[in-house]
C-alpha cells in the first residue's frame, strides 16, 4: 500500500495540513506515527483509512479489510455493546455464527463481559475505547489503524495493545499507530513516521535492534526448542524453570 504525492487541506484556499507525502507500508509492517499536537497525525491516518480523500495525489493498494480505531470512539449511539458489535460484524460480512464467535472472543479478551447490555453512551471513555478496538478487529484487518490507542485505556488493556498489533502484523496485516506520549517504546521494531511542518519523514525499523521474547516450552522439548531457535538465527540468552508450573 502506498501514498503517492498526497496533499491535504480541509478547505479550498485554506492552508495545507499535509504536503507532498509519499510513503509505503508493506504487508506485515508496523509504523508508529509521531509528531507534536496538531501536526497532522490524525489527518494522515484518516487519509490512509479512506475516511478523508486527498486534495491531491492518491492512496493506492488499500486492503479490503480496514480496521480503524479513531482517537475518540463515537459512543453517542443508542445501542448496547453487544448489539453494536453484532451490527458491525454484519456490516463486515460475517454470518451469524462467525459473528457470534468474533464478538464473544473480543468481548472476553478485552474484558467487556460485564458491559454486554450497557448502552454505548453510558460507558466510560476507556470502556468505549475498548468497544472501538473490538469493532476494528472483528474481521482480521489487512490494515489496522490505531489513533492514540493508549489514551484512556486501563493498565491491562494498555498491555494488550502491542500483543494485538503484533498478531495483526504476523497475519500479514499492515499496522499504523499514532502516539504523542512516547508509549510506542512498547512497539520495538516498528518503523517511525514523523509528521512535521506538513511533511512526513520515514525512518525504517532499525535493523540492528534486538528484542527479548519470553517463550515457555515444555521441559521435555527444551533441548529441541533451544536448538531450533539457534538454527533460526536467534540468540538464546537464558533458560530458567517456570516456578509453579
Ligand atoms: N475537520 C477539520 N477541519 C479543519 N481543520 C482541521 C480538521 N481536523 C483537523 N484540522 C486541523 O488540521 C491540523 C492537523 O490536525 P490533526 O488532528 O491531524 O493533528 P494531530 O497531529 O493528530 O494532533 P493531536 O495530537 O492533537 O491529535 C490542525 O491544525 C487542525 O486544527
From TrEMBL:
<dbReference type="InterPro" id="IPR003439">
    <property type="entry name" value="ABC_transporter-like_ATP-bd"/>
</dbReference>
<dbReference type="Pfam" id="PF00005">
    <property type="entry name" value="ABC_tran"/>
</dbReference>
<dbReference type="GO" id="GO:0005524">
    <property type="term" value="F:ATP binding"/>
</dbReference>
<dbReference type="GO" id="GO:0016887">
    <property type="term" value="F:ATP hydrolysis activity"/>
</dbReference>
<protein>
    <submittedName>
        <fullName>ABC transporter ATP-binding protein</fullName>
    </submittedName>
</protein>
<keyword id="KW-0067">ATP-binding</keyword>
<keyword id="KW-0547">Nucleotide-binding</keyword>
<dbReference type="InterPro" id="IPR051782">
    <property type="entry name" value="ABC_Transporter_VariousFunc"/>
</dbReference>
<keyword id="KW-0813">Transport</keyword>
<feature type="domain" description="ABC transporter">
    <location>
        <begin position="1"/>
        <end position="223"/>
    </location>
</feature>
<dbReference type="InterPro" id="IPR003593">
    <property type="entry name" value="AAA+_ATPase"/>
</dbReference>
<dbReference type="InterPro" id="IPR027417">
    <property type="entry name" value="P-loop_NTPase"/>
</dbReference>
